[in-house]
Amino acid sequence: MTVRLTSPGQGETFASGPVRFRILEDGGGVEGRFGVAECVLGPGWPGPPQHVHRKHDETFYVVSGAVRFTSRSDELLAVAGSLVTAPIGDPHTFGNPDPDAPATVLCSVTPERYLGYFRDLADLRPGPDGVLVPAEVLEIMARYATEPYRP
Tens of pLDDT along 50-80? Predict the structure, then answer.
């Protein structure tokens, strides 16, 4: 293995509804142990349905703006400089509560396989409200050992 650099403007980029993704580490440099994506959440984006991962951990570092995280019925607002960890088995969702400005997070997934979920989202078309249809999102989540949270 060698040390790798992903410079500004590099990395795989794509959009899914009001979210833009840039894959910074696809797992190739670390034998698939983890992956990292930069996610720019559009203003007011409500986020995916609350869900539970069964085979990977997810960590979010808020780079700019603020992101609302929900786990079960608990909510927290993570501002720039905050780190939020969603371990295997913990229900969660996140969204951008600011209707006027985007928010940016770095999302790491361990192992990297879940980056495929982000890529698959790019194939979906937003509904009339501009966001992805939750049932279609949940279908893709199921491919990646992720299920909806049902209290």
Answer: 999 999 999 999 999 999 999 999 999 999 9
For the question of whether the overall pTM of this predicted structure is more than 0.85, the answer is yes
Cα distances from 69 to residues 2, 5, 97, 107, 133, in angstroms, run 35, 30, 10, 13, 20
Which tokens in the block code for residue 128?
């009339």
Cβ pair 105, 86 in contact under 8 A = no
Residue 74 CB partners (closer than 8 Å, separation 6+): none
Instruction: Give me the number of domains the chain comprises.
Output: 1
Q: In whole angstroms, what is the distance from residue 111 CA to residue 26 CA? A: 10
The CA radius of gyration of the chain, in Å to the nearest whole number, is: 15
pLDDT in tens, 114-138: 999 999 999 999 888 888 999 999 9
Bridge-based pairing of strands 51-53 and 146-148 is antiparallel
CATH number at residue 27: 2.60.120.10
* Residue 5 belongs to a domain: no
